[in-house]
């Protein structure tokens, strides 16, 4: 797996991305990116004319840029990632010609051959979509892609099981500098007074625990994840007599990345970017299938 | 009237919800009844506050009056702030009569001896509470009226409740002034913090219904112990277990309302222990964790965990000790010796 150039992917880090699964796109041509940008731009302008909910200043001119990120892919079988950026330039201050990035979204496939290998030729498989910026722009961009390439976007839900997998995997990552705590956030909503529990473990201790649980390096099994989580639950129960396993795991956070059950993710470390994207691609594909 | 005072009054009035402004100005008592009658309280808040400033100008308000209005606002909206609890210690058994004038004089003198640029305001309330507002400056700058510290002192007790501003560096001076003024010799911060000032008072003044040890295994005559089964789908249930949980909860938490806390934090430095069959971590060093519980009403929430099947009954003493230990911040280490399952909380 080719290592990713940190400079090119710096824009991905430390931002909260909202996740979607996207079904394969029909007749998407990599050579027509500029044309697509023009069409998308016109579509956005038309929607604004109609007065549909775009919460920006009325005089803003939105420019669209589409580009390929060849580095962001797992193997040659993956299509290169596609980046969509919306910038605005205020008509009022035309002498200051600096564009301000107001929204970005990108399509990606990291080892997504499960989906792509059986596709007919005219289809492009980029099952994972990540957006950052106003929801209204996401809706505009999404609906244009859906209309133009006959695909379907769906918010990606991340289940507690997925979150457990993520926290176990990321807690075990080796990091060269001081890491932040491994934090699990649980919610017990159905009580008369709702309760939130944050359980943060020193990263060295969490990694030490995972290292003794994981039997084969480079490979993670569901059983190992379950043992890891059971250990954490047991330690908690020993102190508080509370069954954390009965609560809802809603968020996990580590020095590598953090993820929330409502389908948002933040990637903090470029070294593990491909691993995180691979996991998310897998989630997106299983939501599609 | 000083421009900064005018602006401060204007901003303070703007904070007040529109339908409470008249009441608060009346409590303040600085504007005359006639002036209050003349005020139009039906215009937009911006205009109301401008009018109030004009009236204050007529009455030549200074920072003292403005500070008093701020205390009144914060007394009513005390739950917007986070309060910490401090306990003072006397060196001997001296029984002294508390003299409020003496207290104020000593307090002001102590603070002013270290820092000239301060605004100090007092207000006494019916429940023997003395509210103190201190706006802090520096040797070169006038006091920042927008980030004051608030102190609530009940003179019949050794407890002080402080909602400090961001400027932690003024805390030692504030603490020193308090013990000098109240004739104590030491003060320490308790590990107890909450938005609900009244609940903090309930806890340290022991005004809540406390747990009591009971030897009763049967419910009192006429008392309905069995909680209602709200879900009609539950037909057959382990009734005795449910009763046991309910009874334990009553014993531990008491039957009255719990003091209102929003969070509890535990820094765990205990050993990780596991089933040897699992063949996992067996370190000689502590498994370091930080656990935070948060809820709009934490103690009620914890009380409902066992009945909901989320926790064992009795609940862990680490949680149930919160009110009577008067703390919601803990550092837990392993207790050495006979009882490996128990913990030491310094």
UniProtKB/TrEMBL annotation, chain A:
<dbReference type="Pfam" id="PF13092">
    <property type="entry name" value="CENP-L"/>
</dbReference>
<keyword id="KW-0158">Chromosome</keyword>
<comment type="similarity">
    <text>Belongs to the CENP-L/IML3 family.</text>
</comment>
<dbReference type="GO" id="GO:0000775">
    <property type="term" value="C:chromosome, centromeric region"/>
</dbReference>
<dbReference type="InterPro" id="IPR025204">
    <property type="entry name" value="CENP-L"/>
</dbReference>
<keyword id="KW-0137">Centromere</keyword>
<dbReference type="GO" id="GO:0005634">
    <property type="term" value="C:nucleus"/>
</dbReference>
<protein>
    <recommendedName>
        <fullName>Centromere protein L</fullName>
    </recommendedName>
</protein>
<keyword id="KW-0539">Nucleus</keyword>
Automatic annotation (TrEMBL), chain B:
<keyword id="KW-0158">Chromosome</keyword>
<dbReference type="InterPro" id="IPR007902">
    <property type="entry name" value="Chl4/mis15/CENP-N"/>
</dbReference>
<dbReference type="GO" id="GO:0034080">
    <property type="term" value="P:CENP-A containing chromatin assembly"/>
</dbReference>
<keyword id="KW-0137">Centromere</keyword>
<dbReference type="GO" id="GO:0007059">
    <property type="term" value="P:chromosome segregation"/>
</dbReference>
<dbReference type="Pfam" id="PF05238">
    <property type="entry name" value="CENP-N"/>
</dbReference>
<dbReference type="GO" id="GO:0000775">
    <property type="term" value="C:chromosome, centromeric region"/>
</dbReference>
<dbReference type="GO" id="GO:0005654">
    <property type="term" value="C:nucleoplasm"/>
</dbReference>
<comment type="similarity">
    <text>Belongs to the CENP-N/CHL4 family.</text>
</comment>
<dbReference type="InterPro" id="IPR052011">
    <property type="entry name" value="CENP-NAC/CAD_complex"/>
</dbReference>
<protein>
    <submittedName>
        <fullName>CENPN protein</fullName>
    </submittedName>
</protein>
<keyword id="KW-0539">Nucleus</keyword>
């Amino acid at each position: 797996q080719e290592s990713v150039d940190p400079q090119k992917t710096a824009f991905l880090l430390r931002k909260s991305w909202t996740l979607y699964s996207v079904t394969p796109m029909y007749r998407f041509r990599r050579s027509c990116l500029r044309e697509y940008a023009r069409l998308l731009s016109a579509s956005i302008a038309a929607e604004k004319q109609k007065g549909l909910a775009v919460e920006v200043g009325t005089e803003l001119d939105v420019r669209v840029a589409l580009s390929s990120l060849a580095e962001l892919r797992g193997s040659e079988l993956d299509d290169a990632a596609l980046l969509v950026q919306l910038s605005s330039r205020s008509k009022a201050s035309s002498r200051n010609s600096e564009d301000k990035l107001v929204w970005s979204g990108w399509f990606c496939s990291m080892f997504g051959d499960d989906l792509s290998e059986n596709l007919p030729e005219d289809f492009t498989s980029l099952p994972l979509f990540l957006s950052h910026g106003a929801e209204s722009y996401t809706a505009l961009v999404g609906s244009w892609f859906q209309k133009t390439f006959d695909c379907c976007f769906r918010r990606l839900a991340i289940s507690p099981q997925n979150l457990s997998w993520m926290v176990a995997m990321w807690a075990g990552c080796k990091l060269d500098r001081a890491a932040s705590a491994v934090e699990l956030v649980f919610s017990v909503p159905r009580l008369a007074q709702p309760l939130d529990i944050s359980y943060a473990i020193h990263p060295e201790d969490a990694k030490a625990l995972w290292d003794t649980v994981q039997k084969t390096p480079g490979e993670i099994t569901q059983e190992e994840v379950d043992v890891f989580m059971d250990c954490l639950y047991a330690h908690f129960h020993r102190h508080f007599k509370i069954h954390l396993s009965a609560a809802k795991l809603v968020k996990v956070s580590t020095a590598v990345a953090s993820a929330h059950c409502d389908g948002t993710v933040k990637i903090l470390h470029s070294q593990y970017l491909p691993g995180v994207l691979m996991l998310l691609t897998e989630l997106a594909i299983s939501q599609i299938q | 009237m000083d421009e900064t005072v005018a602006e401060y009054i204007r901003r303070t009035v703007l904070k007040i919800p529109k339908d409470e402004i008249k009441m608060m100005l009346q409590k303040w008592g600085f504007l005359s009844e006639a002036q209050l009658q003349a005020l139009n309280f039906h215009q937009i808040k911006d205009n109301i506050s401008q009018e109030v400033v004009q009236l204050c100008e007529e009455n030549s308000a200074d920072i003292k009056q403005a500070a008093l209005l701020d205390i009144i606002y914060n007394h009513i909206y005390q739950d917007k702030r986070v309060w910490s609890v401090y306990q003072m210690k006397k060196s001997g058994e001296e029984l002294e009569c508390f003299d409020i004038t003496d207290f104020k004089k000593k307090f002001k003198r102590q603070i002013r001896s270290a820092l000239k640029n301060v605004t100090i305001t007092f207000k006494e309330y019916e429940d023997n509470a003395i509210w103190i507002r201190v706006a802090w400056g520096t040797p070169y700058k006038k006091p920042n009226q927008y980030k004051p510290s608030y102190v609530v002192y009940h003179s019949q007790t050794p407890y002080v409740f402080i909602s400090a501003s961001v400027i932690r560096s003024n805390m030692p001076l504030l603490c020193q002034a308090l013990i000098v003024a109240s004739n104590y010799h030491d003060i320490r911060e308790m590990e107890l913090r909450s938005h609900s000032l009244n609940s903090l008072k309930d806890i340290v003044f022991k005004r809540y219904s406390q747990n009591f040890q009971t030897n009763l295994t049967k419910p009192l005559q006429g008392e309905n112990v069995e909680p209602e089964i709200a879900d009609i789908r539950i037909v057959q249930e382990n009734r005795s277990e449910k009763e046991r949980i309910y009874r334990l909860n009553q014993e531990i938490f008491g039957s009255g309302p719990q003091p209102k806390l929003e969070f509890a934090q535990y820094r765990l430095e205990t050993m990780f222990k596991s089933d040897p069959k699992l063949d996992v971590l067996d370190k000689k060093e502590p498994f370091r964790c930080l656990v935070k519980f948060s809820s709009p009403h934490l103690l009620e929430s914890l009380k409902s965990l066992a009945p909901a099947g989320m926790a064992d009954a009795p609940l862990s003493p680490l949680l149930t000790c919160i009110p009577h230990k008067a703390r919601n911040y803990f550092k837990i280490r392993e207790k050495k010796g006979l009882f490996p399952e128990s913990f030491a909380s310094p």
